[in-house]
């Protein structure tokens, strides 16, 4: 039996029932594919449900504010996806009359849409014979054909895309693409793959050569950067606090946080107080400063680790830009801040 026919047969018998598999509407397929980039299905599913309920059409998403979109996205991570999602929704709604492009090449012109997403939408919605290549597909192909070229190298990206195109079912690319991705997620798993029940086991070269655990090969990432974040959590007599919106092209663009003093290493209370950035926030009428967490909270991102401490500062009064602590729940914040807000009791300090 051919490779693609085996995968499709397995898929039709073993696939999970997921809401985006019940439709070929481009808006919903696009939404699901953006959300599931670097995200597990069990994590992304509640967000997909929330977005399709809040924004049932691309026009609804386009008409929302960026803050509303970021708030609903909160906790899913890689927030550039949410910003691109919103911008693309506006482009499709306002410039394309709500109609998504109907070809791989035209889909690639949308912001936030790369090879994988364009291939998924083009094949699933329009049955265009273009192969998807994601982490699951890399793994299945690398093992089945025993290919040790690094999947994140320029050569590897080219080799695996070409191979994916060669082995796909050109008559039913929609089903095939979903089949190979699902196969990688459920059968040919990264750890402890189910080789004993695999329908491809008899012809899998990595299994034959005892190399399952070695494949796929991936080049190591660069050195992880360490950053030291000191958040200043102000509390006034009126139960107000200060927040600021992150700008620039770094992490968490557009999200809100407490005033931040970033240092090159962990600092003591006195070292923090001596910082010019700290003084620019606090002025002279600070009542008290308390370290909330004795041990820094380590928040791990793909290329950097944030060593974070929260300093609670009581002040007589705050400037007019202060917000009520009760209003904090309305702002989109990084999960690091959200976790703090879930644990911290402002009332204890007022």
TrEMBL record:
Domain HhH-GPD: 35-186
Cofactor: how and how many bound: Binds 1 [4Fe-4S] cluster.
EC number of the protein: 3.2.2.31
Swiss-Prot/TrEMBL keywords: 4Fe-4S, DNA damage, DNA repair, Glycosidase, Hydrolase, Iron, Iron-sulfur, Metal-binding
Pfam families associated with the record: HHH, HhH-GPD, NUDIX_4
Entry annotated with the keyword Iron-sulfur: yes
Family indicated by similarity: Belongs to the Nth/MutY family.
Annotated function: Adenine glycosylase active on G-A mispairs. MutY also corrects error-prone DNA synthesis past GO lesions which are due to the oxidatively damaged form of guanine: 7,8-dihydro-8-oxoguanine (8-oxo-dGTP).
PANTHER family: ADENINE DNA GLYCOSYLASE
Name of the featured protein: Adenine DNA glycosylase
Organism: Gillisia lutea
Gene: mutY
């Amino acid at each position: 039996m051919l490779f693609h026919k085996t995968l499709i047969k397995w898929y039709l018998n073993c696939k999970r029932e997921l809401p985006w598999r019940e439709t070929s509407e481009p808006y919903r397929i696009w939404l699901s594919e953006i959300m599931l980039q670097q995200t597990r299905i069990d994590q992304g599913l509640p967000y997909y449900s929330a977005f399709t309920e809040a924004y049932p059409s691309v026009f609804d998403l386009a008409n929302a504010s960026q803050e509303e979109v970021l708030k609903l996205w909160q906790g899913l991570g890689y927030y550039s996806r949410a910003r691109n999602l919103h911008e693309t929704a506006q482009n499709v709604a306002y410039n394309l009359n709500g109609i998504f492009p109907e070809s791989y090449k035209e889909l690639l012109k949308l912001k936030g849409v790369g090879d994988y997403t364009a291939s998924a939408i083009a094949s699933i919605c329009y049955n265009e014979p273009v192969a998807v290549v994601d982490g699951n597909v890399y793994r299945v192909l690398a093992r089945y054909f025993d290919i040790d070229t690094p999947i994140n190298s320029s050569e590897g990206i080219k080799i695996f895309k070409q191979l994916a195109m060669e082995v796909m079912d050109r008559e039913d690319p929609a089903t095939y693409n979903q089949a190979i991705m699902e196969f990688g997620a459920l059968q040919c798993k990264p750890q402890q793959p189910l080789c004993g029940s695999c329908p491809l086991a008899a012809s899998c070269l990595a299994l034959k050569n005892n190399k399952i655990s070695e494949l796929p090969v991936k080049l190591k990432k660069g050195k992880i950067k360490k950053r030291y974040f000191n958040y200043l959590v102000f509390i006034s007599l009126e139960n107000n606090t200060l927040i600021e919106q992150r700008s620039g092209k770094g992490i968490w663009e557009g999200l809100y946080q407490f005033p931040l003093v970033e240092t090159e290493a962990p600092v003591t209370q006195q070292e923090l107080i001596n910082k010019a950035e700290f003084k620019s926030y606090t002025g002279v009428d600070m009542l008290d400063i308390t370290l909330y967490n004795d041990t820094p909270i380590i928040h791990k991102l793909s290329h950097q680790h944030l060593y974070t401490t929260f300093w609670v500062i009581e002040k007589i009064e705050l400037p007019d830009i202060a917000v009520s602590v009760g209003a904090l729940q309305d702002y989109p914040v990084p999960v690091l801040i959200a976790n703090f807000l879930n644990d911290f009791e402002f009332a204890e300090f007022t």
